[in-house]
Structure to design on (205 residues):
C-alpha cells in the first residue's frame, strides 16, 4: 500500500486542523488498529482530546460487558467466544456516534469488523517494529496471547500473520520511539488525507 507521509515541518494547512477534521468526519469515527503495544490507547486518548471526541477502548468495553477481565474471558470461555463478543461490541460502539476507538490487536482480523469500520469510520494502522512492541508489552500480565514460554516468538508470528490484514486499513502511521504528540500529528495528517481523497472523488464523480 502506498502511504503518503505527512510533512515533518512547517505550519499545518487549515484542512488538517483538529476542529476542521472533526467537522469533516461528521458521524464517523477514527478507528486505531494494530498490535498490542502499538500505542493505540495512549495515542487515541490524545487524539480524542485534540478532536474533542470521546475516546473508547474496545477492550475496556468488552470487559465491562462481560463483567470480567480479558485474561479471565480467555481462561473461562476461550478465544473464539471472546472474538465473537469483540465483534458485537465494536459494531455497537461504531453505531453509537463519532469517537476515537482503540481496538484490540486481533479485532481487525474479523471481516465483519472491517466491514463495520468501513461503514462507520476511518481506519488507521499504528505500525511498530516487533522490537518496539516487545519492549512495551513484556512486563504486562494482561496479554493472554503472550503468556507462553516464548513471548517474542509469539509476537513475531502474530505480526507476520496480521500484518497483511492490517495493511488493508485506510492509512498507516508509524508508531515509533517518538512522542505521542508526534504520532497524533501524523494520524491527523493521514485522516485529513483520506477526507481530501473522498472530496476529490465526489468532485470528479
Amino acid at each position: 500500500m502506498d502511504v503518503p507521509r505527512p510533512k515533518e515541518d512547517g505550519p499545518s494547512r487549515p484542512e488538517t486542523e483538529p476542529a476542521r477534521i472533526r467537522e469533516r468526519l461528521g458521524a464517523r469515527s477514527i478507528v486505531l488498529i494494530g498490535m498490542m503495544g502499538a500505542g493505540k490507547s495512549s495515542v487515541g486518548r490524545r487524539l480524542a482530546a485534540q478532536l474533542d471526541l470521546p475516546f473508547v477502548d474496545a477492550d475496556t468495553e468488552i470487559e465491562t460487558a462481560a463483567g470480567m477481565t480479558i485474561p479471565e474471558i480467555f481462561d473461562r470461555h476461550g478465544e473464539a467466544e471472546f472474538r465473537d463478543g469483540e465483534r458485537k461490541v465494536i459494531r455497537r460502539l461504531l453505531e453509537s456516534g463519532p469517537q476515537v476507538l482503540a481496538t484490540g490487536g486481533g479485532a481487525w482480523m474479523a471481516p465483519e469488523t472491517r466491514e463495520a469500520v468501513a461503514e462507520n469510520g476511518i481506519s488507521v494502522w499504528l505500525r511498530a517494529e516487533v522490537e518496539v512492541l516487545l519492549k512495551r508489552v513484556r512486563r504486562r500480565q494482561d496479554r493472554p496471547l503472550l503468556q507462553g514460554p516464548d513471548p517474542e516468538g509469539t509476537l513475531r508470528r502474530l505480526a507476520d500473520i496480521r500484518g497483511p490484514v492490517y495493511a488493508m486499513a485506510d492509512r498507516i502511521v508509524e508508531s515509533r520511539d517518538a512522542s505521542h504528540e508526534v504520532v497524533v500529528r501524523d494520524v491527523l495528517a493521514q485522516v485529513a488525507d483520506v477526507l481530501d481523497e473522498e472530496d476529490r472523488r465526489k468532485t470528479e464523480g
Remarks:
- The chain is about 55% helix and 10% strand.
- The chain has one domain: 26-199.
- The radius of gyration is 17 Å.
